[in-house]
Design goal:
Blueprint (H helix, E strand, L loop, with lengths): L2 H4 L9 H9 L3 H6 L23 H7 L26 H15 L8 E9 L3 E5 L5 E5 L5 H4 L6 E8 L5 E3 H19 L4 E9 L3 E6 L2 E6 L18 E10 L4 E5 H18 L5 E9 L2 E6 L3 E6 L5 H8 L8 E11 L2 E5 L12 H4 L4 E11 L2 E7 L2 E6 L16 E10 L4 E5 L2
Parallel strand pairs: 3-5, 13-15, 18-20
Antiparallel strand pairs: 1-2, 1-4, 2-3, 4-5, 6-7, 6-9, 7-8, 9-10, 11-12, 11-14, 12-13, 14-15, 16-17, 16-19, 17-18, 19-20
Length: 429
C-alpha cells in the first residue's frame, strides 16, 4: 500500500476508561499464567503439528474422516468459492456476505464514470476517493488548470482509465462525459437550462457552445428570439441553453438559447402588464423600412414604427445610423401577443386600454357607458375610450333594443372580461 493510501487509515485513541484498565494490570504475563489450564480430554493432536507449530490439515483430514473440513456441496457459491460448514444456516450467511462484499467493493471497469471526493492534490497526482475503499490516481500534468485548482473535499466526477494495479483516471474526461450524458438526458426532460460559452461561429450558420467541457452545436435559428443582424456579436458571451436533440452520426448535442428565452416570456409579459406605463430601455436588434426592432427585458421583443420614433431617432433612422446593439429608450404601446409588442418613443401616446383592464374593473361592477352601435343580437356600448362591451338582446327588457339610441347613456354591469379576446360581457343592473 502506498503512503497516500496509508494516510487514510487512522486509529482512534483508546477511551480513558480503557487506558486506566490497562494501567492497573501489574503483570499481564503472570495473570495469564494463573488462568486455569484446560484438561486434556485424551485426544493427542501433537502428531498433526510440524516443527514450526503449523497444523497439518491434510494429515488430520486423512486420519480423522469424521472431522473433515471438506466444502459443503449443497451450498451454492460464486467464483468456485468453498464454504467449510455443515450448518443449515451456512447458505444464508454466505448470501449475506456475498451481497455485502459487492456493496463494499464492486467490480470497477475502464470507461466507467464515478463520483468521488478529492482526497489529495500535489504537482504530480490528484487522488479521488470513490467510496469503495479505493483511490483513483489522476495525472495532474494532463489535467486542465481548473482541475488542478480543485481542493481536497470537493466533489468531482472521474473517468476510470486503468484498473491494473493502482486505479488510474481522468477528472477532465469524467466531468466531460458526465456532462454529455446529463445533456442527453436533459433532451427528454426539456426543462433544464445549462450555462455555456459561445466559442465560435461555423460556416453553415450556427455556433459552437461549450457546456461543462462539451462542445455543443447551436443553429443560428435557435440563437435568440430575433434574427441577429451581427452574427458574431454573441461570440464569447455566456448564455443559457436547453438541449433539444442529439445527432448520433456526429455524436453532437444540439442546444437552443431561443427555447430558454421562450420559457421566460409568460412571466415577463405579466410583469410588463403590471408596469405598462413605465419607460423602458432596450437594444436595437435590426431595422426595416417601417421601423426599428428592439429587444428588452432579456426575452421580449417589440417594434417601434417610424411614426412612433422621436425627432432625434427619426434623423438617425433616415441617415441609416441606427445599428444593432444600440441602446434605445421607449414606452410600451400595445401588447398584441406575447411575441408581438408595439412600442413608441412619444411619451403620452395612447396605450392599449385593454392592458390591465381586469385590474380597473371588478366583477361584478356597475359602470356608466354610452350606446355605440345596435345589432339584432344586442347593443355595443363604449365603457371607456377603446373598450367596447356587448349587452346581449337576451339581457334587455322584453328582448327589444328600439328604446336605445346611439350616444344614449346607459348603466351596465360587467359580468366577465376576456383580455386575450378583448371582450367585455354585460347585463343590466
Amino acid at each position: 500500500m502506498s503512503e497516500k493510501k496509508r494516510r487514510r487509515i487512522t486509529t482512534a485513541a483508546p477511551e480513558a476508561s480503557t487506558i486506566e484498565l490497562v494501567e492497573t494490570v501489574q503483570n499481564p504475563t503472570q495473570q495469564f499464567n494463573e488462568v486455569e489450564e484446560v484438561k486434556d480430554d485424551g485426544n493427542d493432536f501433537s502428531e498433526f503439528y510440524d516443527e514450526s507449530g503449523e497444523f497439518l490439515w491434510d494429515k488430520y483430514e486423512a486420519t480423522c474422516p469424521s472431522h473433515t473440513r471438506h466444502p459443503n456441496p449443497h451450498i451454492k457459491t460464486q467464483n468456485n468459492d468453498k464454504v467449510y460448514s455443515r450448518e443449515a444456516y451456512a447458505q444464508e450467511f454466505y448470501d449475506l456476505l456475498s451481497e455485502h462484499s459487492t456493496e463494499i467493493k464492486p467490480q470497477l471497469n475502464v470507461g466507467e464514470i464515478h463520483t468521488g471526493t478529492i482526497w489529495g492534490v500535489d504537482q504530480e497526482w490528484i487522488t479521488v476517493d470513490i467510496n469503495y475503499r479505493e483511490l483513483v490516481y489522476v495525472n495532474a500534468k494532463k489535467e486542465s488548470e481548473e482541475v488542478r485548482a480543485l481542493l481536497p473535499g470537493e466533489e468531482t466526477a472521474v473517468l476510470i482509465t486503468d484498473t491494473k494495479g493502482t486505479l488510474g483516471g481522468t477528472i477532465t474526461g469524467g466531468v466531460k462525459h458526465k456532462a454529455f450524458m446529463d445533456l442527453r438526458a436533459g433532451i427528454e426532460e426539456g426543462n433544464t437550462a445549462w450555462i455555456g460559452t459561445v466559442k465560435n461561429m461555423i460556416e453553415n450558420g450556427g455556433y459552437i457552445v461549450r457546456v461543462q467541457g462539451v462542445d455543443c452545436f447551436m443553429p443560428g435559428s435557435l440563437a435568440g428570439i430575433n434574427k441577429l443582424s451581427d452574427f458574431s456579436s454573441i461570440i464569447g458571451e455566456e448564455i443559457y441553453v436547453v438541449p433539444v436533440s442529439f445527432s448520433p452520426d456526429r455524436g453532437t448535442i444540439i442546444v437552443s438559447h431561443r427555447k430558454y428565452l421562450q420559457a421566460l416570456i409568460p412571466s415577463a409579459i405579466q410583469k410588463l402588464k403590471e408596469n405598462i406605463e413605465e419607460p423602458k430601455t432596450g437594444n436595437v436588434t435590426g431595422t426595416a423600412k417601417y421601423g426599428v426592432f428592439v429587444e428588452f427585458d432579456k426575452c421580449l421583443t417589440g417594434m417601434i414604427h417610424t411614426n412612433e420614433l422621436d425627432e432625434a431617432t427619426q434623423i438617425k433612422f433616415k441617415a441609416r445610423e441606427i445599428k444593432p446593439g444600440d441602446p434605445i429608450n421607449f414606452f410600451v404601446k400595445d401588447i398584441i401577443t406575447n411575441t408581438k409588442i408595439t412600442l413608441t418613443q412619444k411619451e403620452g401616446s395612447t396605450v392599449n386600454p385593454w392592458i390591465n383592464i381586469s385590474s380597473r374593473y371588478q366583477i361584478p361592477s356597475v359602470v356608466e357607458a354610452k350606446v355605440k352601435t345596435k345589432k339584432d343580437y344586442g347593443i355595443f356600448v363604449n365603457i371607456e375610450e377603446g373598450v367596447t362591451g356587448l349587452l346581449h338582446v337576451s339581457e334587455l327588457p322584453d328582448n327589444t333594443i328600439d328604446d336605445y339610441g346611439i350616444g344614449d347613456p346607459l348603466n351596465v354591469q360587467i359580468t366577465r372580461i376576456d383580455e386575450s379576446a378583448m371582450k367585455v360581457f354585460l347585463k343590466l343592473p
